[in-house]
Amino acid sequence: MSNGNSITATTKTEPEIVNTTLLKDFLSLIKIGIVNSNLITTFTGIWLAFQFTNRNFLKELDLLFLTLFGTALIIAGSAAMNNFIDRDIDPVMKSKRTRPTVTGRFTPSAVLITSFTLLVVGEILLFMASTSAGVWGLAGIISYVVLYSMWSKRRYVSNTIVGSISGAIPPLIGWAAVEPTLSLGALALFLIMFIWQPPHFYALAMKRTEEYRSAGIPMLPVVKGFERTKRSMLLWIIFLFPLPFLLMELGIGFIVLATALNIGWLILSIKGFRVKDDLKWATGMFVYSLNYMVILFVSMIIFSIFV
């Protein structure tokens, strides 16, 4: 571990018996919630690139569909690969015991075949959209599967930051499909998503600290404790404040809304140093972060129409 501490996984528990369907298991395998949330940022990247280059997306719907479907497939394939890699530790984490890789509904070989199929088809679609989109898609796959899942997750307390790279790439894929050379707007979307993720996932990690401890995963709350995690979350939220100003093209209304969202998150973060129930506060931070991301990216689309 990066901090010298030794964290080892505890004995596996028996898989939970759950009533489910093949479709539900498949959606669990590909982490459909993560796929959907990333498609919001991907679409925002596509939309803003069209707006900022004065192109009409209605005349290029094929590009839109290729990019969205391609991105969805590589995210789904990467998530399935993550489940394959983590099938040895998921059984000791209560929140993950119903995954099909744990219950045995999907065999390891079936998961690998599914993952590779989704990744290959997704990349073909992205390269059909543009070479740049395909390359950024490959970067996203490598950063999530290799850099995060295979390398940093079980070794370093900075694993969340490493994992934030892949989560910030979808808007770049969307933008690159329209404008391969990217621009300042694309960089802004990447930075917003990259900086948003640590406080988002640290809140989740606080809620699941004992699960991560049992699995031997050196998440920040496990290794450094809650107070250190709260300070890190506060710092990352502060880093968000200047980023809306990189999107001045969206107008003062967007700047005001984004700043208000940042202030609200900052206030909630500061309150964390005085609360008695850390887990309840972490839940509130997690919920706020989800709403923050959706509101911010949807507002980008809306404000771009009126400027």
Q: What report would you give on this structure?
A:
- With 307 residues, the chain is mainly alpha-helical.
- It has helices at 22-29, 32-52, 61-85, 100-103, 108-129, 131-152, 159-167, 170-178, 184-207, 209-215, 220-224, 226-240, 252-271, 278-306.
- The protein has 2 domains: 14-182, Orthogonal Bundle (Tetracycline Repressor, domain 2), CATH 1.10.357.140; 183-307.
- The protein is built from 14 helices and no strands.
- The longest helix is centred in the last third of the chain and has 29 residues, at 278-306.
- The protein is globular, with a radius of gyration of 20 Å.
- It is found in: Cell membrane; Membrane.
- Belongs to the UbiA prenyltransferase family. Protoheme IX farnesyltransferase subfamily.
- The chain crosses the membrane at residues 32-52, 64-85, 106-127, 133-151, 156-178, 184-205, 234-265, 285-306.
Question: Key features?
Answer:
about 300 residues, 14 helices
Strands, helices and their partners?
Blueprint: H1 22-29, H2 32-52, H3 61-85, H4 100-103, H5 108-129, H6 131-152, H7 159-167, H8 170-178, H9 184-207, H10 209-215, H11 220-224, H12 226-240, H13 252-271, H14 278-306
Helix pairs in contact: 2-3, 2-8, 2-9, 2-14, 3-5, 3-6, 3-8, 5-6, 6-7, 6-8, 7-9, 8-9, 9-12, 9-14, 12-13, 13-14
